[in-house]
Write a structure and sequence with these properties.
This protein is of the alpha/beta class. Helix content is 31%, strand content 20%. It is built from 12 helices and 14 strands. The strands form 4 sheets. Strands 4-1-3-2-5 form a 5-stranded mixed β-sheet. It has a 4-stranded parallel β-sheet with strand order 6-10-9-7. A 3-stranded antiparallel β-sheet has the order 8-11-12. The N and C termini lie far apart (49 Å). The mean pLDDT is 93.
């Protein structure tokens, strides 16, 4: 019984290319009580591996958070399988704005303590007492209300390349960092302002809205389905788009173009650019913004030091990495002293 990947990312990419079939990238989440996350994880892996589904799925006692790539011809079968699970029946599936057959190259179903690392003790407040969900048209109207404070619940490297007009974009590395900072910054507006929140797909706002209501905010609202669903509704209902730039996504695409605006800059030369890359030095792998000119000049590396390592023979690079890990630099996405033009 196969419960884990047997192919490398390169092997999978070759198979996808040879198949020549369209794949769909989508995401979903659901808070629910799962008694045995490990058993549920194994159940999902077995079923979805058979459907050639790839992606990153987190399962916890509190629910599920999934980002998937599925062959278009298997979408209906995936939908039927999801609907056959009682607490997932009719769950909203956020279809990606831009499609890429290589968005995911492995199926990873992992058991976690939480489906989003929020650092909260859920037992201390009512997580079901959430904010008011707004559709795109309602969100646009509230965004124009001068009595509204719109807050981006994402991290600095996400909001740097795209955000809603006039939104507060906290300079934070993680979701858990933003919660207390936002409360402190907005403490004088708990009674008389509309607190309007958004994130990529809605999952962070589900918990944050309940948390802020617990903290005394009277008028709490959230964008239903996040940026992904907002864009879908804007297109299908011919609404005004108030999101500028790109929507950062956590797969190989790294971003979806929402508007033609480029609001970020290359971290190495300062030219207008909103393309995220990972440093080609595997011992670094830093996420940063790099234009094509700098990519050619630096060979996809974030610094001359990394470029020197990248040009060493593979075995020498491997020897240098032995006994070390790069988790800190990956965690500190876009933060490095070598990036001269990081905002």
């Amino acid at each position: 019984m196969q419960l884990y990947n047997t192919l490398s990312a390169k092997e999978r990419a070759l198979l996808i290319e040879e198949a020549g079939k369209q794949r769909l990238t989508l995401s979903f989440y659901q808070y629910a009580h799962i008694g045995n996350p490990q058993l549920f994880r194994n159940f999902l892996f077995l079923a979805w591996n058979e459907l050639d589904i790839l992606g990153r799925i987190y399962v916890a006692h509190e629910g599920i958070n999934g980002q998937l790539s599925v062959p278009a011809e298997n979408f209906d079968e995936l939908k039927a399988h999801i609907d056959s699970i009682s607490f997932l029946e009719n769950v909203r599936l956020n279809i990606a704005v831009e499609q890429d057959n290589m968005s995911f190259l492995k199926l990873k179903v992992k058991v976690r303590k939480k489906i989003v690392a929020d650092g909260l003790v859920d037992e201390t407040f009512d997580v079901t007492n959430k904010g008011v969900h707004l559709k795109a048209e309602e969100f646009n109207r509230m965004l124009e209300d001068p009595n509204t404070i719109c807050v981006d619940m994402r991290n600095h490297y996400e909001s740097e390349i795209g955000h809603f007009e006039g939104a507060v974009t906290p300079d934070v590395d993680t979701f858990r960092d933003s919660l207390d900072i936002i409360e402190e910054d907005l403490k004088d507006y708990k009674d008389d302002k509309n607190l309007l929140m958004y994130c990529t797909g809605g999952i962070r706002c589900e918990k944050a809205s309940a948390y802020y209501k617990h903290k005394g905010f009277k008028n709490v609202f959230q964008l239903e389905g996040g940026i992904i669903e907002y864009v879908r509704q804007v297109k299908s209902e011919s609404l005004e788009n108030k999101f500028i730039g790109k929507n950062f996504v956590f797969d190989h695409r790294r971003g979806e173009r929402i508007s033609d605006d480029v609001i970020a800059q290359c971290h190495q030369c300062g030219e207008a650019c909103d393309t995220h890359v990972n440093c080609e030095n595997e011992a670094c792998h830093l996420l940063f913004i790099q234009c094509e000119s700098c990519r050619d000049k630096m060979q996809g590396c974030c610094s001359t030091d990394c470029q020197e390592v990248y040009n060493l023979p593979f075995e020498e690079q491997k020897a240098l990495r032995k006994g070390t890990h790069n988790s800190n630099k990956i965690f500190k996405k876009g933060r490095s002293a070598v990036l001269k033009y990081k905002k």
